[in-house]
Amino acid sequence: MIAINSEVLEEEVGVRLLERDRNRRVALTDAGQIFLADAKRTLAAAEATLRHTREAANGARGPLNVANIAALSTRVVPPLLQLFRVLHPEVEVFMVELDPLAKSKFVSMNQMASEPIAALAGLLFDL
User: Fold this and answer.
1) Where in the sequence of the chain do the CATH 3.40.190.10 domains occur?
2) Which residues, listed in sequence order, are joined to residue 94 by a DSSP beta bridge?
3) Is the confidence at residue 37, as pLDDT, over 60?
4) What pTM, to 2 d.p., does this model score?
5) pLDDT at 119
6) Which pairs count as long-range contacts for 69-74, CB under 8 Å and 24+ apart, including other chains?
7) What pLDDT is attached to residue 66?
8) What angle is formed at CA 97 by the lines to CA 91 and CA 103, rounded to 5 degrees?
9) What pLDDT sits at residue 127?
10) How many C-alpha atoms does 77 have within 13 Å on its Cβ side?
């Protein structure tokens, strides 16, 4: 938490943020209430930015490219994909169906997860 001298803050902002009485009681002015509400939203947005950045760095947010083969497209992958999307709504899954030769090429170029079942099942619980 950051400690700030209220007089310095009021000088920087250019308005009184606090009312002080003779008994040393302090209350927010109308401007102070607006400042506090906006500051809380700004801090929450900054915290969300840090969280989103960390999530993107560990794969919990952003794109996931998965190569799939036709044999798995109708029965195996859909339930895994549905569960994955429920558990990780911030990850965008891009699924492409490839023949085995094309799949090998994409995997070797590190553009796709090599095994859709392993990739989806592993990511379900590892993120």
Assistant:
1) 60-126
2) 65
3) yes
4) 0.56
5) 52
6) 69/97, 69/98, 69/99, 69/100, 69/103, 69/116, 70/97, 70/99, 72/116, 72/117, 73/97
7) 76
8) 100
9) 44
10) 17
Looking at the domain that runs over 60-126, which CATH code has it been given? 3.40.190.10
Signed CA dihedral, 79, 65, 100, 108: sign only: negative
Residue 100 CA to residue 122 CA, distance in Å, equals 21
Which pLDDT belongs to residue 45?
A: 96
Tell whether the model's pLDDT for residue 105 goes beyond 80. no
Encode the chain in three state secondary structure: CCCCCHHHHHHHHCCCCEEECCCCCEEECHHHHHHHHHHHHHHHHHHHHHHHHHHHHCCCCEEEEEEECHHHHCCCHHHHHHHHHHHCCCEEEEEEECCHHHHHHHHHCCCCECCHHHHHHHHHHHC
- Provide the CB-side half-sphere exposure for 18 (13 A, CA): 13
pLDDT-based confidence at residue 31 (cuts at 50, 70, 90): very high
Q: Which residues pair with 49 in a beta bridge?
A: none
Per-residue pLDDT, averaged over 21-33, amounts to: 91
